[in-house]
C-alpha cells in the first residue's frame, strides 16, 4: 500500500478497523509487521483528528474486530492484537503531535479523553423532563464509556495519561460529575473515589446531592433489571469506599489523615439525616417513595464488606445507630411520657423499623442494649426513635425480653444507688414501651411495677431516703402521666412500711386529683380493674369486667362479694351509674335462673338496686323476649375484617422465607388489628383466672365468629404449607408465636375456645383431614401457650372445677358412639403425633406441654378398643429410644399428614412407637382403671363400634389382662381381684353423675342405653370367680367376700353423710344403684357362713348393720323395704343355711337375730309376706327335700292368720314378739280398706289393761300408724290421710290413759319401744313432734283432756313443742299443698295452735306432775325459744310445790 491513494480508494475510504479486519483473516507473517506499521503511520499522517481516531478505536461497530463473532478463538486472538496495536498507535500519535505542538503528552491525552468523555455522556438527545433528571447513563452510553476507560487504562500503562490532571480538567468549569462516571473511573482504576475525595474540596456537596438524586430516581420499567443492578452497584460501591475510608482506624494522627475520614463520615451522616427526615414525613413505603428504602438496603454487611473490614463496618453501624437515636432530640422526657402510647411497633413507620433491623443485624442483643444504655447516659436522644428501636428489638428478637429485664434491673439499681433521676426515668420508659407491645412480647406494666416495687425486697425498701426518692419521682410524673399508669400506681401501690404510710397517701391523693382532672376519677375505676400497659379501655368496659368478676365470685361462693357491697356504699356514684347498668343489660331471661339472675335477685333482696331501675330492667327484658330475633351490629369505618384478611395472607406468604423477624412484625400488626375488632378488653385481667366455656350456646357476635373462623382457617393453611417443607421439629417458632399473639386478648381467646368446642362436639363429621390436622396443632399450641395461664370452667359445670384449656376442649370429644370414636381417635392421633414431633428437641417438662395427657389417655382407651391387634401387641419400648426416636419422629409425622394413609395405619404406627411408650411411663399420662370404666360406661350400646360379643371380649381383656396385673401406682389393680371389683362397683355407683354430665353434653344420651349391663356382667363374672376361688381355698370361708361387699357400700354411703338435701339425694342414688348390683349378684354372698369347732353357722351382723345404717334412710315409703330386695335377702338366708348341718335351726337363729336387731327387715317381711311365702316355700322345698318350714318362718304365717282372724272374734295369740304381732295387725288392717268397725272390734280384744303384751302390741301398732300418718302428710298421693288419721285416733282412744303411748314420740328415751325407731327414716323421726300435735289438735276435747291427765304428758308435750319450734327455725316444715281435706290443718297453724294447747295443758296440770330436774330442764330450754311458755311453767308450776320424789323416777 502506498501513501498516495487512487481515486477509487479515496471515494471508498477504508478505516483503520477495515484495514485491521482485512488482515486478521490471514495468519500474520514476521515481515508483515514492518510493512503494516509503515502503512498505518502514513494513514495517521493524513488523519490528524485524535478524537476521531479515539472514537474509531472505541467504536462498537459490528464489524469492529472487538465485536466480531467469528469464533471464540479468533475473537480472543483478535482482541489481543487490536488492543495492543490500538494502544501503541494512539501513544505514538499522541507523542508525535505533542512534539509538534511542544506540549506534554499527558496534557494532550487528557484533552483527548475529556473531549471523548463529554461526547459519550452527552450524545443522547434529551427527549423529555424525565430524561433530564436521569441518574444513570443509558445502556449505549455505558458501553462506550467502558470502551473509553479501557483505552485510558492502556494510556495509563504506557505513562501517557495523568489521572490527577484529568480530574482537575474535568472539574475546571465546576462541572457536576455524574455519579456513575465516578463509579466507572473507580472500578477501572483510572481515578479512585478515595483520590477524588482527597483532591476535590467540594466533593462532599456534589457527592451528597448525587447520592440523593440517584436514590430518588426510579429506572424506567422498560430497561429491566439491568439498570436497577447498576444503580445498586453504584450505591454499594460508593458507600463501601466511604465506610472503608471513614471508619478504618489510622495509626497516623496527622490532621490531613483525619480530614478525609471526617469527610466520608459527613457524607454518610448527611444521607442518614436525609433518610430520617424522609421517614418523619411518611408512615409507609409507598408515601416515602423507593429512595429511602433503597438507601436503607445499603446497610448490609454483604454489600459493604468488599471495601471495608469487619471492624470498620461495625464502627459504621454503631455510629449510624447512635446518630439515628440522637437525631433532632426535640422531644423532652415529659413529651415521651405523654406520647409513648403512639410509638408502638404497630404504629411506627415501616421504614423506621426496617432501618433499625438493618442496623441491629450484626450485633448481639447484649451489645445493642448495652450501647443503648451508653447512648442514654451520654447523649440527648430522640425518644421516639429510642422507644421505636426498643419495640423493634422486642418484636423481632425473642431473646430480647430477658436482656431487657437485665437492663431494667441495672438501671433501677443504678438509680437507687446514686438517686439518679435519669436512670429512673429511662427504666420506666423502657418498661412501659415493652409492655405496650403486649403480653406475648413483654410483661404488663402492672406486673413489672409490682415485681419491682410491690414487695419488701424492692429497690426502694432499703431506706426511707429510697422510698422518698421513688414517691417524689412518681409525684413529679403525675402532671404528664397517662391515666392508665396512674391507675396502676393506685391499684398496686409500692410497698411502704406502716410508719411511712402517710407518704404514700400523699402521692395517692395527688394521683386521684390528676385522674379527676382527666375526667377519669377514681370513681370511674373498675372494682376489680387491672390496668394493662396498653390502656385505653373505656369506663363502660371496666364496668363489664367488674360484672363478670362479681358473677364469677358469686357463682363460686354463693354470696355477694365484699367489694360489691363496699362499692354500693363508698363508691355509690360508680355503682349506680356504671356497675348496675352493665349488670342490668336487657336480655332474654332463661327459663331456669342462671348466675346473673340469682345475683340480681340477691342484690335486690339486699336493697342495692333501686326499685325503678329494677322495674325498668324487667320491662326491657320482656320486650327483648317479645322480639323474634336480635342481631348484633358493629359499625366500622375501615372494615377491619378485610384488613385482617390481608394481614393473614401476608403472614402465610412469610412462612416460605421463614424470616422470624418479619413474621413477628406481621403478628404484631395482626394483634393490633384484633385489638380494634375486639375492643373494651385490656390485654390482661388480673383476678380473672378462669374463662367460662358455655357449651350449649354461642354468645359471640357475627363479626367475631367470622374473625375466629378466618384465624383458624389461616392457621390450618399455614400448618399445611409449613408441613410440606419440614416436619414440626424442623420448623421455626411461627405457630407458637401465632397462638401467643392471640391469647393476650381474652375476648378473642374466649371466642376461639367456643368455636373449637363447637367444631369438635357438633361439627366433627364435617371436618376434613386437613382441618383436623390444623386444629389439632392449634389445640396443642393453645395448651402449651396457656400452660400457666387462665383455667377454663365449663358451663353447665360438667367438671367439678376449672381445668386447663386442653382438658376442657378434650371434653368435647365424647366417645359414646362409633362416629364420635372415629373423630376422636383421628384428632387425638394428629395432636399427639404433632406434639411428640414438635417437642422433640425440648426438655421433658416443656415437651409435656405439647402433648395433652387427656388426648393421650383417649388414645390409650380407643386404640385397643378399635384395633384388636393392639391388644395382642401392647405398648412396648422396643429397644433403645434415643436414635430410633430421632430417626422416626419425622416419619411418624409424615404418616399422619399423608393423604393416602388411613387413620388405622397412623394409629398403629403411633401405638408401636417407642416415644409413645415412654410417655406411658409418666404418671399423668397413665390411663387408670377408673377412667377406663368411666369411658366404657358412657358408650351407647346401640351405636357402639363393637358388637355384643366383641364388646364382651374387649372388656374381659381390659379387666383381666390389662388392668388386673398392672401396678396400682400405674392405675391398675396390682393383681388384687377385690381391688378390680371395687373399682367396677364404684364406677357403677358413680354412673348417675356421669349420666348427668353426658346429658349436659349430649341430650340424646337417654335415647339409647349405656354399657352398664355389660359392666354388671363383668362384675358377676369377677364375684363368681372370687367365690369359687375362696371356696376352694383351705380356709373354706367366704367371709371375705361378704365383708368386702358390705364395707364397700358402707364406705360409699358414709361419704355422703351430711344432712343436706343434696347429700340425701346422693345417698338415695347410691343405694338405688347398689340395690341393682345387689340383685344382680348371688344372694348367698350377703350372708356370712362361719365354721367354728367343726360346726357351720350363719352370721347376719353385716346385713343387719347395713339395713339399719343405710337402707333405712332411703326407703320409699319410709319404713318399708322393696319386696324384691327382701325376697333376695331371704333367699340368701335359706341358701346359706343349706350349707350348714342343721338348716332349719340356723334359719331360726338367724331370724331371731333379725327380729331382735333389725325391725325394719321384720316389718317389711311381714308386709310382703303374701308375695314372699310362695317363693320361700318353693325354695326351701328344693333345698331341704320337703322338710317343714323353719319355726320362725312358720310363725310369720301364723301371725298373719291370727291378725286376719281377730275381726271374727278373740283367738289365741301366737308366741311371737309384740313388734311381729303389731306388724301383722298393721298389715292385715291396712289390707281391709276402710272397715273401721272390724278395726274397733279387734282393738276391744287387745285392751291394754288385759296385759303388758297387749299394751306393747298396741303401742307398736300406734307407732306404725303414726308413721303412715306422717307419710300421708309428706306424700299425700301415696297414703289416704283420712284413713290413717282415723286409725291413729282409734288407737289413741284405747291407749290414752296409759303412759306408754307417749314413749312413741320420745326418740331419745330408753324403753322397750326404742328399737322401733330403727324402722323409719331419720327424717320421720325428726317429724314425730309434728305428728304429736297434729294428731292431738284434731281430737275431741274429751280425748284431749284424757291425754293431759295422762302421767308424764306435760313433759312429753313441752319437749315436742320445743322440737316443733326447732323444726320451724330450721325450715323442716311440711310443704304446702292444695289437696288438703277440710279437717287437715295448714302447717303454719300447727305451731300457734300447739302453743295455745300447751299453755292450757300447763294451767290444767298439777305442780306435782314434774320433778324439779324436769322443770329446770324444760324451763331452760323454753327460755330461749319461747319465753312465754317458760313463764307459764314458772307461774303455774311453783318449784317449791314440785314433788321431790319425782326426782328419783
Description of the structure:
The structure is a single chain. This protein has 1449 residues and is mostly helical. It is built from 71 helices and four strands. It has a two-stranded parallel ribbon. Strands 3-4 form a two-stranded antiparallel ribbon. A hairpin with a 2-residue loop joins strand 3 and strand 4. The longest helix has 30 residues, at 72-101. The protein is elongated and about 175 Å long.
Residue share in β-strands: under 5%
Report the C-alpha radius of gyration, rounded: 51 Å
Distance between the termini: 170 Å
What class would the helix/strand composition place it in? mainly alpha
Mean pLDDT across the residues is 80
Number of strands: 4
The neighbouring-strand order within the major sheet is 1-2
Uncertain segments are 1-28, 60-81, 125-129, 531-536, 628-637, 681-687, 876-887, 1441-1449
**What's the overall geometry?**
elongated
Largest sheet: 2 strands, parallel
**Helicity, in percent?**
55-70%
Number of helices: 71
Can you lay out the helices and strands and say which pair or pack?
Blueprint: H1 7-11, H2 16-24, H3 32-46, H4 50-57, H5 72-101, H6 105-122, H7 129-132, H8 139-157, H9 163-170, H10 179-187, H11 193-199, H12 203-216, H13 224-247, H14 255-281, H15 285-288, H16 290-296, H17 301-304, H18 310-325, H19 333-339, H20 350-360, H21 365-378, H22 383-396, H23 400-418, H24 421-436, H25 445-453, H26 464-477, H27 483-491, H28 501-517, H29 539-557, H30 562-570, H31 572-583, H32 595-605, H33 611-626, H34 640-657, H35 660-677, E1 690-694, H36 702-725, H37 734-743, H38 746-762, H39 769-785, E2 791-795, H40 805-810, H41 818-838, H42 844-849, H43 853-866, H44 868-872, H45 882-897, H46 903-911, H47 914-920, H48 929-938, H49 948-963, H50 977-989, H51 991-1001, H52 1012-1031, H53 1039-1054, H54 1061-1080, E3 1088-1092, E4 1095-1099, H55 1101-1109, H56 1123-1137, H57 1143-1157, H58 1159-1167, H59 1169-1184, H60 1191-1205, H61 1218-1231, H62 1236-1245, H63 1252-1274, H64 1281-1295, H65 1322-1326, H66 1328-1336, H67 1341-1348, H68 1353-1370, H69 1387-1404, H70 1412-1425, H71 1427-1436
Parallel strand pairs: 1-2
Antiparallel strand pairs: 3-4
Amino acid at each position: 500500500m502506498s501513501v498516495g491513494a487512487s481515486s477509487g480508494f479515496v471515494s471508498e475510504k477504508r478505516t483503520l478497523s477495515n484495514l485491521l479486519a482485512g488482515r486478521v483473516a490471514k495468519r500474520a507473517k514476521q515481515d508483515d509487521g514492518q510493512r503494516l506499521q509503515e502503512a498505518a503511520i502514513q494513514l495517521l499522517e493524513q488523519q490528524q483528528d485524535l478524537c476521531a481516531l479515539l472514537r474509531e478505536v472505541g467504536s462498537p461497530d459490528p464489524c469492529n474486530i472487538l465485536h466480531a463473532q467469528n469464533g471464540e478463538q479468533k475473537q480472543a486472538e483478535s482482541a489481543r492484537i487490536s488492543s495492543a496495536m490500538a494502544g501503541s498507535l494512539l501513544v505514538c500519535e499522541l507523542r508525535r503531535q505533542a512534539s509538534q505542538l511542544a506540549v506534554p503528552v499527558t496534557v494532550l491525552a487528557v484533552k483527548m479523553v475529556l473531549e471523548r468523555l463529554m461526547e459519550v455522556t452527552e450524545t443522547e438527545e434529551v427527549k423529555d423532563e424525565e430524561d433530564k433528571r436521569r441518574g444513570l447513563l443509558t445502556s449505549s452510553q455505558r458501553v462506550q464509556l467502558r470502551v473509553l476507560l479501557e483505552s485510558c487504562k492502556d494510556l495509563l500503562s504506557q505513562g501517557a495519561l495523568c489521572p490527577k490532571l484529568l480530574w482537575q480538567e474535568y472539574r475546571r468549569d465546576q462541572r457536576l460529575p455524574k455519579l456513575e462516571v465516578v463509579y466507572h473511573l473507580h472500578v477501572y482504576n483510572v481515578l479512585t473515589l478515595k483520590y477524588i475525595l482527597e483532591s476535590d474540596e467540594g466533593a462532599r456537596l456534589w457527592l451528597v446531592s448525587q447520592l440523593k438524586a440517584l436514590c430518588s430516581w426510579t429506572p424506567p420499567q422498560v430497561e429491566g433489571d439491568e439498570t436497577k443492578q447498576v444503580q445498586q452497584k453504584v450505591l454499594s460501591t460508593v458507600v463501601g469506599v466511604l465506610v472503608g475510608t471513614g471508619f478504618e482506624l489510622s495509626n497516623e494522627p496527622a490532621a490531613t489523615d483525619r480530614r478525609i475520614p471526617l469527610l466520608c463520615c459527613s457524607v454518610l451522616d448527611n444521607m442518614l439525616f436525609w433518610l430520617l427526615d424522609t421517614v418523619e414525613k411518611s408512615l409507609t413505603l409507598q408515601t416515602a417513595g423507593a429512595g429511602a428504602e433503597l438507601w436503607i438496603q445499603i446497610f448490609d454487611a454483604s454489600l459493604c464488606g468488599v471495601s471495608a473490614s469487619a471492624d470498620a463496618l461495625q464502627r459504621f453501624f454503631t455510629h449510624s445507630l447512635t446518630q439515628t437515636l440522637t437525631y433532632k432530640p426535640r422531644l423532652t422526657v415529659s413529651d415521651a411520657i405523654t406520647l409513648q402510647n403512639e410509638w408502638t411497633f404497630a404504629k411506627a413507620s415501616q421504614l423506621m423499623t426496617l432501618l433499625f433491623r438493618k442496623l441491629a443485624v450484626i450485633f448481639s442483643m447484649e451489645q445493642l442494649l448495652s450501647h443503648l444504655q451508653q447512648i442514654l447516659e451520654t447523649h440527648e436522644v430522640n425518644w421516639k426513635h429510642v422507644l421505636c428501636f426498643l419495640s423493634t428489638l422486642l418484636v423481632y428478637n425473642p431473646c430480647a425480653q430477658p436482656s431487657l429485664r437485665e437492663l431494667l434491673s441495672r438501671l433501677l439499681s443504678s438509680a437507687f444507688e446514686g438517686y439518679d433521676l435519669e436512670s429512673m426515668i429511662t427504666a420506666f420508659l423502657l418498661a412501659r414501651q415493652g409492655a405496650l407491645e403486649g403480653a406475648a412480647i413483654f410483661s404488663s406494666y402492672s406486673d413489672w411495677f409490682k415485681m419491682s416495687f410491690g414487695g419488701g425486697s424492692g429497690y426502694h425498701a432499703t431506706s426511707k431516703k429510697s422510698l422518698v426518692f421513688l414517691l417524689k419521682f412518681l409525684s413529679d410524673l403525675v402532671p404528664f402521666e397517662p391515666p392508665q399508669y396512674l391507675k396502676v400506681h393506685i391499684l398496686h401501690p409500692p410497698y411502704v412500711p406502716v410508719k411511712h404510710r402517710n407518704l404514700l397517701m400523699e402521692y395517692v391523693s395527688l394521683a386521684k386529683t390528676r385522674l379527676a382532672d382527666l375526667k377519669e376519677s377514681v370513681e370511674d375505676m373498675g372494682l376489680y380493674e387491672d390496668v394493662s400497659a396498653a390502656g385505653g379501655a373505656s369506663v363502660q368496659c371496666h364496668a363489664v369486667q367488674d360484672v363478670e368478676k362479681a358473677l364469677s365470685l358469686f357463682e363460686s361462693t354463693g354470696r355477694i362479694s365484699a367489694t360489691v357491697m363496699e362499692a354500693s356504699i363508698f363508691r355509690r356514684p360508680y355503682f349506680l351509674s356504671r356497675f348496675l347498668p352493665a349488670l342490668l343489660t336487657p336480655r332474654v331471661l332463661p327459663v331456669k335462673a342462671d348466675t346473673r339472675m340469682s345475683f340480681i335477685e340477691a342484690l335486690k333482696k339486699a336493697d342495692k338496686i333501686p326499685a325503678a331501675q329494677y322495674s325498668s330492667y324487667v320491662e326491657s327484658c320482656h320486650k327483648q323476649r317479645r322480639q323474634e330475633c336480635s342481631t348484633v351490629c358493629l359499625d366500622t369505618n375501615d372494615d377491619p375484617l378485610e384488613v385482617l384478611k390481608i394481614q393473614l395472607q401476608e403472614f402465610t406468604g412469610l412462612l416460605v422465607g421463614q424470616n422470624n423477624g418479619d413474621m413477628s412484625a406481621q403478628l404484631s400488626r395482626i394483634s393490633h388489628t384484633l385489638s380494634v375488632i375486639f375492643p373494651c378488653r385490656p390485654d390482661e385481667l388480673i383476678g380473672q383466672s378462669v374463662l367460662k366455656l358455655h357449651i350449649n350456646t354461642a354468645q359471640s357476635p357475627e363479626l367475631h365468629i367470622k374473625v375466629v373462623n378466618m384465624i383458624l382457617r389461616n392457621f390450618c393453611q399455614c400448618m399445611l404449607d409449613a408441613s410440606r417443607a419440614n416436619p414440626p421439629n424442623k420448623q421455626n417458632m411461627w405457630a407458637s408465636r401465632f397462638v401467643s399473639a392471640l391469647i393476650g386478648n381474652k375476648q378473642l381467646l374466649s371466642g376461639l375456645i367456643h368455636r373449637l368446642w363447637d367444631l369438635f362436639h357438633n361439627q366433627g363429621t364435617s371436618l376434613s383431614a386437613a382441618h383436623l390436622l390444623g386444629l389439632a396443632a392449634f389445640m396443642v399450641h393453645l395448651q402449651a401457650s396457656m400452660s400457666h395461664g387462665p383455667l377454663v370452667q365449663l358451663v353447665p359445670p360438667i367438671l367439678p372445677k376449672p381445668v386447663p384449656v386442653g382438658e376442657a376442649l378434650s371434653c368435647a370429644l365424647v366417645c359414646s358412639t362409633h362416629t364420635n370414636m372415629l373423630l376422636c381417635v383421628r384428632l387425638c392421633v394428629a395432636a399427639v403425633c404433632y406434639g411428640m414431633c414438635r417437642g422433640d428437641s425440648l426438655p421433658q417438662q416443656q415437651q409435656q406441654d405439647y402433648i395433652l395427657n387427656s388426648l393421650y389417655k383417649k388414645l390409650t382407651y380407643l386404640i385397643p378398643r378399635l384395633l384388636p391387634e393392639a391388644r395382642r401387641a401392647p405398648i412396648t419400648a422396643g429397644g433403645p429410644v434415643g436414635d430410633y426416636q430421632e430417626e422416626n419422629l419425622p416419619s411418624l409425622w409424615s404418616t399422619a399428614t399423608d393423604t393416602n394413609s388411613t387413620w388405622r395405619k397412623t394409629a398403629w404406627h403411633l401405638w408401636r412407637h417407642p416415644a409413645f411408650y415412654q410417655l406411658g411411663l409418666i404418671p399423668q399420662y397413665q390411663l387408670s382403671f377408673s377412667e377406663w370404666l368411666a369411658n366404657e360406661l358412657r358408650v351407647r350400646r346401640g351405636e357402639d363400634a363393637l358388637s355384643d360379643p366383641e364388646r364382651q371380649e374387649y372388656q374381659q381383656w381390659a379387666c383381666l389382662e390389662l388392668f388386673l396385673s398392672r401396678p396400682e401406682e400405674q392405675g391398675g389393680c396390682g393383681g388384687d381381684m377385690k381391688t378390680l371389683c371395687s373399682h367396677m362397683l364404684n364406677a357403677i355407683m358413680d354412673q348417675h353423675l356421669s349420666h348427668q354430665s353426658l346429658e349436659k353434653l349430649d341430650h340424646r344420651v337417654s335415647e339409647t342405653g349405656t354399657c352398664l349391663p355389660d359392666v354388671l356382667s363383668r362384675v358377676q363374672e369377677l364375684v363368681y370367680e372370687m367365690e369359687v376361688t375362696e371356696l376352694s381355698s383351705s380356709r373354706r370361708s367366704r367371709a371375705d367376700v361378704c365383708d368386702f361387699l358390705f364395707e364397700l357400700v358402707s364406705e360409699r354411703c358414709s361419704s355422703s353423710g351430711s344432712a343436706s338435701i343434696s347429700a340425701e339425694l346422693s345417698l338415695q342414688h347410691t343405694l338405688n344403684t347398689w340395690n341393682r348390683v345387689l340383685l344382680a349378684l348371688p344372694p348367698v354372698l350377703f350372708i356370712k357362713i362361719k365354721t367354728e369347732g367343726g360346726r357351720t353357722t350363719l352370721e347376719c351382723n353385716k346385713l343387719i348393720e347395713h339395713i339399719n345404717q343405710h337402707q333405712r334412710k332411703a326407703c320409699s315409703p319410709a319404713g318399708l323395704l322393696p319386696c324384691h330386695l327382701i325376697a333376695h335377702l331371704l333367699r340368701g338366708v335359706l341358701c346359706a343355711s343349706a350349707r350348714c348341718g342343721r338348716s332349719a335351726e340356723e334359719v331360726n337363729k338367724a331370724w331371731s337375730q333379725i327380729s331382735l336387731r333389725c325391725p325394719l327387715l321384720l316389718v317389711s317381711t311381714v308386709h310382703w309376706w303374701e308375695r314372699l311365702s310362695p317363693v320361700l316355700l318353693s325354695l326351701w322345698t328344693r333345698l331341704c327335700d320337703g322338710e317343714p318350714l323353719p319355726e320362725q318362718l312358720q310363725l310369720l304365717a301364723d301371725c298373719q292368720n291370727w291378725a286376719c282372724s281377730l275381726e271374727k272374734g278373740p283367738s289365741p295369740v301366737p308366741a311371737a314378739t309384740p313388734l311381729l304381732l303389731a306388724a301383722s295387725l298393721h298389715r292385715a288392717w291396712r289390707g281391709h280398706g276402710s272397715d273401721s268397725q272390724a278395726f274397733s272390734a279387734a282393738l276391744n280384744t287387745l285392751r291394754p289393761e288385759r296385759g303388758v303384751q297387749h299394751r306393747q302390741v298396741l303401742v307398736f301398732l300406734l307407732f306404725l300408724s303414726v308413721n303412715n300418718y306422717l307419710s300421708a302428710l309428706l306424700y299425700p298421693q301415696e297414703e289416704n290421710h283420712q284413713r290413717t288419721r282415723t286409725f291413729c285416733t282409734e288407737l289413741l282412744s284405747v291407749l290414752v290413759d296409759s303412759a306408754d303411748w307417749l314413749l312413741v314420740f320420745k326418740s331419745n328415751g330408753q324403753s322397750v319401744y326404742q328399737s322401733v325407731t330403727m324402722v323409719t327414716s331419720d327424717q320421720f323421726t325428726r317429724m314425730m313432734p309434728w305428728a304429736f300435735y297434729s294428731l292431738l289438735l284434731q281430737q275431741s276435747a274429751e280425748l284431749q283432756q284424757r291425754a293431759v291427765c295422762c302421767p308424764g304428758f306435760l313433759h312429753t308435750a313441752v319437749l315436742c313443742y320445743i322440737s316443733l319450734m326447732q323444726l320451724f327455725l330450721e325450715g323442716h316444715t311440711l310443704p304446702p299443698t292444695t289437696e288438703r281435706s277440710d279437717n287437715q290443718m295448714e302447717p303454719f297453724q300447727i305451731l300457734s295452735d300447739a302453743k295455745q294447747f300447751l299453755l292450757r295443758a300447763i294451767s290444767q296440770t298439777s305442780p306435782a306432775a314434774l320433778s324439779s330436774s324436769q322443770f329446770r330442764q324444760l324451763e331452760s330450754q323454753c327460755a330461749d325459744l319461747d319465753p312465754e311458755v317458760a313463764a307459764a311453767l314458772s307461774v303455774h308450776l311453783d318449784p317449791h310445790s314440785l314433788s321431790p320424789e319425782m326426782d328419783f323416777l
